[in-house]
Amino acid sequence: MQRRITVRGIVINDKGHLLAQKFRQEDGSESDYWGTPGGGLDPGEILTDCLHREMIEETGIAPTIGKLLFMQQYTSPHPDGSMREYLEFFYHVENYQDYETIDLSKTTHGQEELTRCEFVDANVENILPKFLQEVNLQSAINGTSPVMLATYMQQ
């Protein structure tokens, strides 16, 4: 089984809303769910370097990266029919004010991969991964709890 490692940013504004994206589907339509900014780790790349690169590619804004908040491990079918394992790392991004206005036309990947990027209420919107709707994000950021691991593995 092949493994893909991704790194994602958790950006919470002063209203407690999460920076999230709607993704452009292959047919050009918008995804029916929101996800957090980030992407795949290149070979030999450091996790935080990956997040820095991906945040700039998708939002045009450099992140101030804080602590590691969550890890997620799961399997999912790949379009070629095989099962893939995914390992995701979620870091707090501290400079939320810089993300209040995002112009996807000024990014290298934003318009190609995304339809929207804005702050949303994670308790109301359909956010993936689902655990982001179930945890208290502000407590995770402010607290001293260990990193949370969410595991959804299928054989």
Mean pLDDT: 92
User: Given the structure, what is the number of helices?
Assistant: 4
Q: Secondary-structure element sequence?
A: EEEEHEEHEHHE
Strand content: 35-45%
Biggest β-sheet description: 5 strands, mixed
Unreliable runs: none
Overall number of strands: 8
Radius of gyration: 15 Å
What structural class should be given to the helix and strand makeup?
alpha/beta
For the record, give the distance between the C-alpha atoms at the N and C termini, rounded to a whole number.
10 Å
Shape: globular
Provide a concise account of the structure shown.
With 155 residues, this protein is an alpha/beta fold. The chain has four helices and eight strands; from the N terminus they run E-E-E-E-H-E-E-H-E-H-H-E.
Task: Explain what this protein looks like in three dimensions.
The protein is of the alpha/beta class and 155 residues long. The chain contains 4 helices and 8 strands, in the order E-E-E-E-H-E-E-H-E-H-H-E. A 5-stranded mixed beta sheet has the order 4-1-6-5-8. A 3-stranded antiparallel beta sheet has the order 3-2-7. Strand 2 and strand 3 form a beta hairpin. The chain is globular.
